[in-house]
From TrEMBL:
Gene3D superfamilies: 1.25.40.390
Protein name, UniProt field: RagB/SusD family nutrient uptake outer membrane protein
Keyword Signal: yes
InterPro entries, per the entry: SusD-like_N, SusD_RagB_dom, TPR-like_helical_dom_sf
Annotated compartments: Cell outer membrane
Amino acid sequence: MKIKIFILGLCALSFVSCKKWFEPDPENLKSEDQMYDDSRFAQGFLNTTYRTIPTYYNNSDVATDDAVTNVRTNEYLQIATGSWTASYNPLNFWNTGYGSLLYLNLFLANSEKVNWANDPEVAKLFNMRLRGEAFGLRALYMYYLVRNHGGIASNGELLGVPLIKEYQTSTSDFNIPRASFKDCINQILTDLDSAEYYLPMEYNDINNANQIPEKFRNVTNSPGNYSRVMGTHSRQLFNGLIAKSFKARAALLAASPAFQHASNNFSWEAAANAAAEIINYKGGANALPANGHTFYNNQGEIDGLSQGNNPPEIIWRENIQTNNGDQEAQNLPPSLFGNGFINPTQNLVDAFPMVNGYPINHANSGFTAANPYANRDPRLTHYIIYNGAQAGINNTPIYTTSQSTTVDALNNRETSTRTGYYMKKRLRMDVNRNPNSTSNKSRYLPRIRYTEMYLTYAEAANEAWGPTGTGTHSFSAYDVIKAIRRRAGIGLTNNDAYLEECKTDKDKMRQLIRNERRIELSFESFRFWDLRRWKEDLNTTARGIDLVSGNYTPITVETRTYQSYMLYGPIPQSETIKFNNLYQNNGWE
């Protein structure tokens, strides 16, 4: 059957919506078999799916105990305060996910028929790389579909989403039941195995045949042919290291408390082993870059990026954006010509330990309520603008309490803070948003950081083998957390005595690891998903702070109204109405 497809736009129809194809004028169409002789047209199906990969900074943090927003109509504020339903779901990934799977399945069904290049070696290499990308991207989209929509269904089973592994035409049956959660994770891992089979770990030019990875040597011995396909110009496309990272993400999700079920036998050990592969590739527990925790503001490093290179902290990123000040315009305090969109909570500030490593409520911490920001974890100053902290191109002190006479004062105006704090992480401090002298800079948006993978290992290894157990590896959860905290500047004068206290207690180490994850990945869109996969309380009240009569005084900012079943997101109501084989997740009916 010859399927008519748009040349331009490549309409992203999901499997549930492609009941029929549109029929534009013939001159605007190409038929399916024309992709065999037009490699750019064929590759367009793959490229389209890169454009809809979920953004790393989705600001879902404002739906958690880490932050609120001063935009009262924000969709994440709405779901945190009672408006989340199966028909109103800002986290809905259904149409995007299945629309991309449609393209990827079409590509995989036809890629081996495409004339990728005149040179047979180059053509085979292109087909390998592109098929590897397609398998990897299919796993990526399935991961987000399962994360966003998997859960305990109304029939009591732990379900994922419908598994669509073949290209569907307009005559296909779309009333497909949800596969089990286990089968979905297995399919993700299988596709990632296929991606690794076809792809190099990273894309690099080579100078001699000895540098060609072994699995490609039966295809070519030509350094030029290899570099043409697998060289530096392909960087930021899906590669083997990215596939390993998504294995770690999928395995961590599958092992988490929210997905423990008789039908799911994925283990913490499997998650730890998946993450350990990445740590070993990086160079071990102590191989994280010294400035990795300030990746967003490492100005010289960012400005020096070229040829698709990654900073040492980054596994995968989006393309460089030049002359950009979007994050600063959105989030700087109003006195620095920003809109103060994300306001960190007192809850998050309290999570930062003292520089000696002790939590602020520990007897040995030395915390003083009258001077709450003194001798704290240095990441607090890197990530959050608190009362009196400096920010912007001139290191301007920002005064956030209601007693301040500046526009940055608590609840002073719509763009002012609601909590007494502004977000500093994600922002370059050398960007000037003054409309009279605007100066923007280069930036990139991450997709995967090495630190995330190290934290994944720490969490899974502690659950599998305890704080100091190593499994088959040379490092433990304790080793990884010690390295992360030392990088941050914690416990340098007392051998991190609190960490030493935790390393003999699995439960205490669990809480420490979760807290380190909370801090290190703050404002990077992890907290909302972490709380739910841990089955933690979503209804912790968001708190702020004010200076009243010379004393720092906690204030209530926003209460949460989540229901217990919201550990899992809903299947879109529009789909359950259309297809009676789709069980809704429990509670969303």
